[in-house]
From TrEMBL, chain B:
The lineage of its organism: Bacteria, Bacillati, Bacillota, Clostridia, Eubacteriales. This is Ectoine/hydroxyectoine ABC transporter ATP-binding protein EhuA. NCBIfam families: ectoine_ehuA. It comes from Clostridium thermosuccinogenes. The gene is ehuA. GO terms for molecular function: ABC-type amino acid transporter activity; ATP binding; ATP hydrolysis activity. It is found in: Cell membrane.
Amino acid sequence: MQYLINITRAILEGSLVTVKLFFMTLVFSIPLGLLVALIRVSNQKLVKYITDVYIWLARGTPLLLQIFFVYYGLPSFGIVLDRFPAAIFAFILNYTAYFAEIFRAGIQSIDKGQYEGADVLGMTYWQTMLRIILPQMTKRVLPPVSNEVITLVKDTALVNAIGLVDLLRAANIAVVRDFNILPFGIAAVFYLLMTLVLTRIFGKLEQKFALHE
Amino acid sequence: MNMIRALNIYKRFKNLEVLKGISLEVEKGEVVAIIGPSGSGKSTFLRCIDRLEIIDGGSIEIEGEAMVTMDSSGKSRYAKESDIRRIRKKMGMVFQSFNLFPHRTVLGNIIEAPIIVNGEKKEEAIRKAEMLLRKVGLIDKKDCYPSQLSGGQKQRVAIARALAMNPDIMLFDEPTSALDPELTGEVLKVMRDLAQEHMTMLVVTHEMGFAREVADRVVFMDNGEIIEEGKPEEIFQNPRHERTKAFLSQVLQL
């Protein structure tokens, strides 16, 4: 029993890293993703091209490789980051690209008539975006965003690779030390609990937004 | 003074010439119905007047103010964006597909633009919206979402929404074409009431009954041109042109 409490505590400590990484990634990559999406639906040719390249790179290479690049590669360009900031930076870079594409698709799925309806009432482009298009987009993108957020919970385990002690790493340490796979089971329960909570939250959000349809 | 003065409007989509030199003037309080077969360019013409489409040639004046002028080479030049914005505010537009905002209630749809575009106080906007909803007979639906309404109710909300901006001119783009036949009456009644209050109206429609009874003038368009126009009784009883006759005999037979 004491053993169970001890390893649970160790895993709990590791999960602090996981949770911190998770929230910081979301807090930055959702607004940034929205910004990139708005740029991509605008008619600015040059910035649009730049975001094209960025999204291609961010989605076209493994997240693990991006973490390695930020942690081991950037120092050769004079940018040295600690493990945790390096991990967060890589995650934000990667997730922003996915959110941007989800939001872009969401914005473009809104009927042209909504823009015209706002236009003939004298609303400006930004008024239309903020008050008419984005609220409707939010409802439509909830399912893919929820997918992405749940994937993020599990992707955090990748930071193992640069030596950060996250939830999974803490469990792994205990497994190797004690020749007992119970810690893996506990880790699984932790992940499942987190994704369960998130699934519930998104379910509630979808219900709330479903009211008007 | 002419409320709408459109001269020699040309509009092309890629290689297809949709409007081939259309001219139309609408006076204050006049109700003008534009009829004609599908693809005749009548909706495009209406959309050009509210700058939902950019014209290639011609000029448009609204209440004496130039939205587009024509230079000596025949090219159209639009006024400054701020001027266009002011001029467009004089017009309200009603679409075939309603284009209500699905995430806003009926009341929310109506007060949105008065508040954020005109800077009206919320209480004032609500008071006016409720008055308009009474006028179109939908005050009991004010807290509903558009998805909970029938097509005819949606279109009446769309009319109220346009009226909330206090336009001098109302443009209707086939307002009953997306409705079940039994629902067209309630929308046409609202439009008829508006006409009786001497609202200036330009209506693209397939409702021959409405054109005949409510319009002061009927314009028949075909193939990007105005073929003939006149008082409803002239157009419906004594059409002069073959194409008008052919069109009318087709639609009135149905």
